[in-house]
Amino acid sequence: MITIVDYGMGNLRSVQKGFEKLGAAAQIVTTPEQVAAADRLVLPGVGAFRDAIHELERLNLVEPIREHIRRDKPFLGICLGLQMLFDVSYEDGEWKGLGVLAGDVVRFPATPDLKVPHMGWNTLLPTRPIDLLRGIPSDASVYFVHSYYVRPKDESVIAARTSYGIEFTSMISRGNLYATQFHPEKSQKVGLKLLENFSQK
Tens digits of per-residue pLDDT, 122-171? Predict the structure, then answer.
């Protein structure tokens, strides 16, 4: 069973439908107890970092999420669900993240040639082979919508990068912890293959 965390800020139904299309059972949950009982946990997210982390705290979901990751149970963060894993975000202020991974979240630099947010299809450039990318071409295109990106202090967690004016981290992997800046549920066949690989962890 795939467990998807509902804290009021994710495109939950499209993530759930992605798994269901693959024949994988996926439930949307809201309580700490349900998160604590999860075998495979997905933390999606769309919107502002500040609001998202405040909602996780208000709903008492922070510690069950951290404990799931500490136990090295399969975890997938998507978009904001990737960014919140880090120490701090500088999105409209300075906001403390979950602190699972060392590093920060910063805005794309202002460049005349590039629009922010980074929106649309772009190429995934894997840095090393990982389970979630099994069966996915090394130059696959995936779908992004974001104005901020993560900067891990430990580069060994970087599983893929993407170029958009700068080269930024688009996927991380450490043990059974995985997270993507792109949206697998919007990335058609490539995204479905990634979700399938996660469902088999």
Answer: 999 999 999 999 999 999 999 999 999 999 999 999 999 999 999 999 99
Could you tell me the two tokens for 37?
A: 């009982």
pTM, entire model: 0.97
Can you tell me the distance from the alpha carbon of 35 to that of 103, in angstroms, rounded to the nearest whole number?
25
Q: In which region does residue 155 sit, left (phi positive, over 0), alpha (psi from -120 to 50) or beta (all else)?
A: alpha
165: three-class secondary structure by DSSP: coil
Question: Cα separation of 44 and 183, whole Å?
Answer: 9
> Which residue range forms the structural domain that includes residue 19?
2-199
DSSP alpha helix (H) spans, the chain: 12-21, 32-36, 49-58, 62-70, 80-83, 188-199
Q: What is the CATH number of the domain that holds 66?
A: 3.40.50.880
Residues with a known catalytic role: 79, 183, 185
Residue for token pair 């794309």: 108
